[in-house]
Amino acid sequence: MSNGTPELLSVRNLVVAYETSGHVKSRLTAVQDVSLDIAPAGIFALVGESGSGKTSLARAILQLIPSASGQVIFCGKSLPEMNKTQLREARRDIQAIFQDPLSSLSPRRTILQTLTEPLDHFRIGTGKERIDIAAGALETVGLDNSMMQRFPHELSGGQRQRAALARALVSKPKLIVADEPVSSLDASIQARVVELILNLRDKQGIAFLFVSHDLSVVRQLADTVAVMYLGRLVETAPARELFSNPAHPYTRSLLRAVPIADPLHPAPVVLDGEPPSALTPPTGCVFHMRCPDRIERCSSVEPGQVNISGKEGRQENHRVRCHLWNS
Questions:
Q1: Largest Cα–Cα distance of the chain, in whole Å?
Q2: Is residue 189 within 8 Å of residue 221, measured between CB atoms?
Q3: What digits encode the pLDDT tens for the residues 93-145?
Q4: Are the C-beta atoms of residues 48 and 229 closer than 8 Å to each other?
Q5: Extents of the domains making up the chain
Q6: Measured between alpha carbons, how far is 36 from 54 in angstroms, rounded to an integer?
Q7: Secondary structure (3-state) at 76
Q8: pTM to 2 decimal places
Q9: CATH topology of domain 9-93+173-320
Q10: What's the CA gap between 45 and 183, in Å, rounded?
């Protein structure tokens, strides 16, 4: 709950694991004990390096892959416990856009056919009304109706990503899960998509789970930011608090690595090393092998999640998994 208002999405203690194939079968835990809340019309950003488990978490929330345990509550109802009919109806309110729209949009369908497909699926409107809804969605994302008869390969990268967003909008969802939606776009197109997402939040009340590794984009968008490392959320805080007062060494390392277009600003500092394998996670804190501030305890004792809200002037709902957060 937030200020007495029910959350739109609540994830509790979610675990996602994969059974690996080969001569020796083993279990890879991609998401470990993750909990988060997204408020109506909120923008929740999930950040971390490649392989941290962000996409697995997003796909488990969307029910595209099964979770091993935990809860995903959307609009007060458990998504994993729904039957196929109930889940089909729920997906009208929870949509997705992905990193590469060229692979997520059918190359054999025109943009009009792509946009009316979910309307057919959910039985929304008549034939004429569906065309009008599609045209309205294109207008919302800043595309001309002349685009409707084109195929995805006939559009630019930015136009394709806008078309993918329009497809997510036609069913009037309450939540859009956006998995790296701007990482393949140049800076000017990124800025337009960011502005569009903010407008959709402000004017239509749509909430977003925004998955990204780009903290400069996240800074412009998010209300709340969660930092993920090796399947765990190591820090979650309001965006302004996280950028101004990071508590976890990994968060500070990510912030130091963000390039800034200022010749007087220190050069970015790239974090040394690579994340360990999720097949053989380290004991203790999962980040200790790369942490510049580690102490002996970090290698043997896994830190629990601590709510540091109200401590040292920190804002509400600032949570961290670290032995050294106040050092």
A1: 68
A2: no
A3: 999 998 887 888 899 999 999 999 999 999 999 889 999 999 999 999 889 98
A4: yes
A5: 9-93+173-320
A6: 13
A7: coil
A8: 0.91
A9: Rossmann fold (3.40.50)
A10: 14
